[in-house]
């Protein structure tokens, strides 16, 4: 998805476990109205029931989405360690699905493809906070470095609508490792700061219980636990503050 820019439907997001419910726009007013009647002590199941009522039933004889239908193929073709290897995998496969992916890759910025794959590889075993910090660094560098691909893409797609971006460099072979490295250098003048909000223990536990089967839920819980101060550290800090206050008096 990151390399090709392919999009998922609401139902596909549910099927892939990215979200728990898919609510059509027409049902949103109903959901808001029902949620407004929920009391503070309502269980997660009560909320889920409201969302489920608004979620459309899966229609019969609906074709399986390309992403789900080709899940095994995607895992095989996109497991290359470089963009060039992925391209070779797709060319060798030659299926209609592979050809459609090749078409999207060949239309994309070679620099963006290599930077994106590097980001995916680095983020695989890192925390949500680490990944968001690097995303922020990449976003800053794409608009502030000597690379003009971001602006060229906006020009060709949005402003002139010519659909003919002139990427620089124009090929994957011309994008060096040093060029890719430069996008991952943080801007010390504009660091990303996080606002850590500590949830009540019972709320955090409830989230962990009901989100354990969902990737994003787990990430949220991990970030929340990391943000919560250690009880012993708090006591030590309070004791230290009290001693400092006594000495000052």
Task: Kindly name the structural category.
Answer: mainly alpha
Strand content: under 5%
Which outline best applies? globular
The percentage helix is 55-70%
Instruction: Give the C-alpha Rg.
Output: 24 Å
The main β sheet shows up as: none
Number of helices: 14
Number of strands: 0
H/E element sequence: HHHHHHHHHHHHHH
* Mean pLDDT over the residues: 80
Uncertain runs are 213-249
Q: How far is the first residue's CA from the last residue's CA?
A: 62 Å
Q: In terms of quaternary structure, what is this?
A: single chain
List the defining traits of the structure above.
mainly alpha; 14 helices; 249 residues
Chain-wise SSE layout:
Elements: H1 10-15, H2 28-35, H3 44-54, H4 66-69, H5 71-77, H6 83-93, H7 96-107, H8 110-123, H9 128-144, H10 149-159, H11 177-182, H12 201-211, H13 215-227, H14 231-248
Helix pairs in contact: 2-3, 6-7, 8-9, 12-13
3D architecture notes:
Helices cover 60% and strands 0% of the residues. It has helices spanning 10-15, 28-35, 44-54, 66-69, 71-77, 83-93, 96-107, 110-123, 128-144, 149-159, 177-182, 201-211, 215-227, 231-248. α6 packs antiparallel against α7, α8 runs antiparallel to α9 and α12 (201-211) runs antiparallel to α13 (215-227). The chain starts with 9 loop residues before the first helix and ends with a helix. The model is unreliable at 213-249 (pLDDT under 50).
């Amino acid at each position: 998805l990151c390399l090709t820019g392919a999009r998922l439907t609401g139902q596909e997001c549910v099927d892939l476990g990215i979200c728990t419910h898919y609510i059509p726009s027409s049902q949103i007013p109903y959901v808001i109205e029902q949620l407004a009647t929920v009391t503070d002590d309502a269980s997660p199941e009560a909320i889920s029931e409201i969302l489920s009522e608004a979620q459309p039933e899966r229609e019969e004889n609906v074709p399986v989405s390309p992403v789900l239908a080709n899940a095994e193929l995607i895992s095989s073709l996109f497991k290359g360690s470089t963009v060039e290897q992925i391209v070779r995998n797709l060319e060798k496969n030659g299926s209609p699905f592979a050809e459609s992916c090749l078409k999207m890759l060949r239309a994309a910025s070679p620099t963006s493809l290599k930077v994106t794959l590097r980001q995916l590889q680095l983020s695989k075993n890192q925390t949500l906070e680490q990944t968001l910090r690097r995303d922020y660094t990449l976003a800053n560098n794409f608009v502030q470095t000597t690379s003009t691909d971001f602006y060229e893409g906006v020009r060709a797609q949005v402003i002139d609508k010519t659909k003919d971006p002139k990427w620089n460099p124009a090929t994957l072979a011309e994008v060096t490792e040093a060029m890719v490295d430069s996008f991952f250098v943080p801007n010390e003048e504009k660091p990303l700061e996080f606002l850590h909000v500590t949830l009540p223990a019972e709320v955090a536990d409830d989230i962990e219980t009901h989100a354990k089967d969902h990737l994003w839920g787990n990430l949220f819980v991990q970030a929340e636990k990391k943000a919560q101060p250690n009880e012993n550290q708090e006591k030590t800090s309070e004791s230290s503050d009290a001693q400092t206050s006594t000495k000052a008096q």
